[in-house]
């Protein structure tokens, strides 16, 4: 779970530079975290 959280933060920082595709990946990871 720590690995997932770390990758979410990593994607989040990249997301500020990139586009909506990144946000979709983050929301997918968030769903995995909550479930």
UniProtKB/TrEMBL annotation:
Domain of life: Eukaryota
Protein's name according to its UniProt entry: Uncharacterized protein
């Amino acid at each position: 779970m720590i690995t997932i959280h770390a990758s979410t933060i990593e994607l989040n920082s990249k997301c500020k530079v990139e586009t909506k595709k990144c946000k979709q990946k983050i929301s997918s990871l968030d769903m995995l975290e909550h479930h």
